C-alpha cells in the first residue's frame, strides 16, 4: 500500500492538461485511510481468483493495493459476471479487477460502485478480450455527494472483438472515469456514457481510443446533465495511427445545462495519422426545450416535474442500449432518485 | 364556460390579437375559421398561457375565474386541453409513461387517487381503439418518428384520456388525409357532451363536415369579424375569405 501522504502529493493538478477542469484540491482534504476492500463478485461461466502482487499503474492516480482479482471467463462460455464495490466511510481503497475473455466467448459484465459518506475510491478494471469475443460491460457509479471516485478502465481488444461499454455516473463530489481502449484489426468499441452531475458535483469522463490497426470501428456517444454548481467534463481522444486505414470513428457528445451556473467542458480530440479513414465528431450544449416544457405543462404537469421528465427523457436515451431488463429497471430507479434531488 | 373580452395579445412586440371577443357556453362546439396569419394559433396559445405571448389588454374568464392569472399547468388541471398543431417529440419517454404522468399530475392536483401503470394501460388500450391507434405505439417514445397523422391521433387520444371540460383543437385537420381526418374527427365527436365545450380552430371547412359546430366564427386580423351557424363554414368555402373582407370593409359584418 502506498503511503498516504506520498500518494496525495503525487496527485495531478489542473496544470496537467488531462486534469485541466478537474481539480483534486478537495480530495486532498478528505480524511481517509487506506484499506483493502475486496469486491463482491458473482460469476456464471467464469472463475474468480484473488492473487496478490504488483501490477503496474495504468493511470496517474492508481493506488497500489495488494488485492488483485482475476475473472477468467471459461473457453467457449456465454458468461455473466457482476462485480459490486462498496466503499466504507473514511476509506481510501481501490481493488484491481482483471477480466480475461478468451477468443470467441461472450461476456455480460456489470460493475457497480457505491460508497458511504466521505471516501476515495480508486478502482482499476482491465479487460483483455480475445479475438472475435463479444463483451457487454455496464459500469455504474452511484451517487455519493461526499465521495470521490477515480476509476480507470483499460480494454485491450484482439482482432474482430467487440466491446459495448456503458458508463453511467450519477454524481459524487468528484467522479472521474478514465477509459482507455486499444483496438486491433476489425475490432469495435461502442461507448455510451451518461454523466449526471447534481448540485456541486463534478463528473468527468476521459476516454482514449487507440486505432493502431486497420478496419476498426469506434462509436462514442456521451451525454451529460448538469445541475446548479455542477460540472461535467468530457475529453475524448481518438488516435488513428499510421497504417490504421479504413478506420471508422464517430464521437458525439450532448450536454444539458439545467441551471445558469452549471458548467460543461467538452473536448473532442481527434488525431488522424492515416489516410482513407472516416472520422467524425460533434458536441452540443443546450438547455431544456421551452416548447417541450410548454407542451408538458399544458397537460397539467408542473414546471419542476416537467423539467425532471424532460431530463429523464434525455438520460433515458443514453440507457436505450441496455437491454437487460432488471439492470435497466435498477438504473431507472437511480436516475429517478438523482432527478428527485435536482434543485428547482 | 369561456368568455373572452377585448383581448389584445402580442408576440415579440408585434400585436396579433386586436380586441378579440368570444363567448363559448358549456356544451357547445364552436368553430373558428380564418385565413393564415389571422391569429388563430395565437388565440389557442394565449388561452393555454404560452410564455412568449403577452396579453396587453382585455380578459379571459373560464368558469367565472380569471384565466390569465393562472399558471399553464393550473389551466390544464382545471380542464383546459390544447391539441397542438405541431405536437412536440420527446425521445426517451414512452407515450404511455408521459400520459400517465400527466393524468396523475391532474388527479393529484384535484385530490383524486393516482392511477397505477396496470390500470392505466387497460384504460389507454381501450381509448386507443377510438382513434385506431395500435397499442404498440404506447410503448414508443412520445411522437418520435410518428407520422403527421399518428401525431394528431395521439393528441386526440390524450384528450380522451384527460377528459377536459374545454378542448381547443388547433388545426387538427392539417396534414391529414381523408381517412385519417375521419378517424380523428370520430375521436373528437366521442368527446361531445353537454358538460364539455370544444373550440375547433381550422383554416378549411373540410373538418367541419365531420365535426358539425353549433356556432362558427370568422377570425380576421386579430378579431372575430363574423359569427354564424354551421352553414357559415360552407358559405366561406364557396365565397372565400375575401367575401368577409369586403363585408368588413363595407361595415356590414360588424
How is this fold's topology laid out?
The complex is a heterodimer of chains A (344) and B (254).
Chain A: H1 4-10, H2 25-28, E1 33-34, E2 40-44, E3 46-51, E4 68-73, E5 78-87, E6 91-93, E7 96-101, E8 106-115, E9 119-121, E10 124-129, E11 134-141, E12 147-157, E13 162-169, E14 174-183, E15 188-197, E16 202-211, E17 217-226, E18 231-240, E19 248-257, E20 263-272, E21 278-286, H3 290-297, H4 303-319, H5 325-340
Parallel strand pairs in A: 1-6, 4-7, 5-8, 6-9, 7-10, 8-11, 9-12, 10-12, 11-13, 12-14, 13-15, 14-16, 15-17, 16-18, 17-19, 18-20, 19-21
Antiparallel strand pairs in A: 2-5, 3-4
Helix pairs in contact in A: 3-4, 4-5
Chain B: E1 2-11, E2 14-24, E3 29-33, H1 40-48, E4 53-62, E5 65-66, H2 72-77, E6 80-83, E7 90-94, H3 95-109, H4 117-130, E8 141-142, H5 148-162, E9 166-170, H6 178-190, E10 197-202, E11 215-220, E12 223-228, H7 231-239, H8 241-250
Parallel strand pairs in B: 3-10, 3-11, 6-9, 9-10
Antiparallel strand pairs in B: 1-2, 1-4, 4-5, 7-8, 11-12
Task: Walk me through this protein's architecture.
The complex is a heterodimer of chains A (344) and B (254). With 344 residues, chain A is α/β, with parallel strands linked by helices. Chain A has one domain. Helix content of chain A is 15%, strand content 47%. Chain A has five helices and 21 strands. Chain A has helices at 4-10, 25-28, 290-297, 303-319, 325-340; strands at 33-34, 40-44, 46-51, 68-73, 78-87, 91-93, 96-101, 106-115, 119-121, 124-129, 134-141, 147-157, 162-169, 174-183, 188-197, 202-211, 217-226, 231-240, 248-257, 263-272, 278-286. In chain A, the strands form two sheets. In chain A, strands 1, 3, 4, 6, 7, 9, 10, 12, 14, 16, 18 and 20 form a twelve-stranded mixed beta sheet that branches. In chain A, strands 2-5-8-11-13-15-17-19-21 form a nine-stranded mixed beta sheet, with helices on one face. The termini of chain A are far apart. Chain B has a six-stranded mixed beta sheet, with helices on both faces. The two termini of chain B are 24 Å apart. Chain B has a single domain (2-250), classed as Rossmann fold (3-Layer(aba) Sandwich), CATH 3.40.50.300. Chain B is α/β, with parallel strands linked by helices. Chain B has eight helices and twelve strands.
